[in-house]
Automatic annotation (TrEMBL):
This is Flavoprotein pyridine nucleotide cytochrome reductase-like FAD-binding domain-containing protein. It is found in: Membrane. Residues 89-146 form the Flavoprotein pyridine nucleotide cytochrome reductase-like FAD-binding domain. GO terms for cellular component: membrane; mitochondrion. The keyword Membrane applies. Coiled coil: none annotated. GO terms for molecular function: oxidoreductase activity. Belongs to the flavoprotein pyridine nucleotide cytochrome reductase family. Its cofactor is FAD. Keywords: FAD, Flavoprotein, Membrane, Oxidoreductase. CDD domains: cyt_b5_reduct_like. FAD binds at residues 100, 102, 119, 128-129.
Amino acid sequence: MKNPPTAQSRTLGLGKSMKMVAAGRVAVGSFCRHWDSLPSQSPSGEFAKYILVGKDPVSSTCAIFRLMPAGNVAIDLDDPDCERAITSLQFKQPQLQIARAYTCLPQQQGQHMDELRFLIRREQKGEVSNFLHRLPIGAEIEARGLHAEYIVPKDVKSVVFIAGGTGIAPALQVADILEGQADMHILWANRKREDCVGGHSDTKRISSGSWWSFSRTSPGADTKVANVQKSALVSVLEDLKDQATTPEAKRSQLLVDYYVDEEGALMKPQDVTKVIRSISTQENATVPGKKIVFVSGPEGFVNYWAGPKQWIGGREVQGPLKGVLSAMDLDDWEVVKL
Ligand SMILES: Cc1cc2nc3c(=O)[nH]c(=O)nc-3n(C[C@H](O)[C@H](O)[C@H](O)COP(=O)(O)OP(=O)(O)OC[C@H]3O[C@@H](n4cnc5c(N)ncnc54)[C@H](O)[C@@H]3O)c2cc1C
């Protein structure tokens, strides 16, 4: 989750559930692209005006921003090319004339079809994130997009999603796109519990010597967090787990494990290995289909797990697989850095 090295940032896109939003509106600046086939320059997409209608705190540094179009000009969210895309928009900081990308959250039940939601962390000394967090309700925000970071292939059968902090936002989109049509296991690392209050892991980590074994836990098995009011994002994850529950399997195709640094539960390479191994030995092991490991989060997080992305000729590309994942036996798993 790294912005381009110039002030001219990219336009970004949305998940399938946002598709109907722009009906009857004048579309601006719609742009979708496929993985590693980026144009050398961002298109000059126009900014559309939105109103900040809500800012729901998630933690001391994070909030969910809720936006509605300010007038009859809105971002075109109805691009069929973005149907299976991980998407985001750019918000402008008008005084400095810079823009940053923010990943759209999937549409939730009861959400107005025109409303856009984003999880935004206030970065210490961050120009745009502080500007956004300082805005009062009713303030105008200029946004442009859509931009597709990655199109989720139709033939994907298994996903492991390694998310750090706000890197959970694209994971929510992928889960929303897959809707239980593929196995997905999210491993979400946070520095502090305040970012994922009420979240309990779906697979139990049982220490056996220096190794960990995994087994499914029953809901609410983690007594420490079972009775706590769930944070907004944990609730979204719970809803997505329900959505991914198929009647045939009678269980959710989506599993989530939480790792909280301040609780001494750091995500370790063996946690990832175990999840990959467990998916690889499941009943769908012989079914054809892609297996993808996504890594999403702050630059340092992505670098640690998969090595840095690269800028070549003004285009951001994946770069070679490095970091912790490069030392693992990933067999036929593809790694995608976001
Ligand atoms: C595709 C994509 C999707 C994204 N989605 C999200 C999302 O959903 N939610 C989200 O919160 N973020 C997301 N981001 C990150 C977001 O775009 C911004 O990068 C982030 O909000 C920080 O921007 P900023 O302008 O506030 O910080 P910047 O001003 O760019 O600063 C970034 C960091 O550098 C530090 N810094 C700045 N100047 C200096 C200096 N002189 N010396 C030392 N340190 C310095 C700041 O303290 C800050 O920590 C996404 C990024 C991309 C590319």
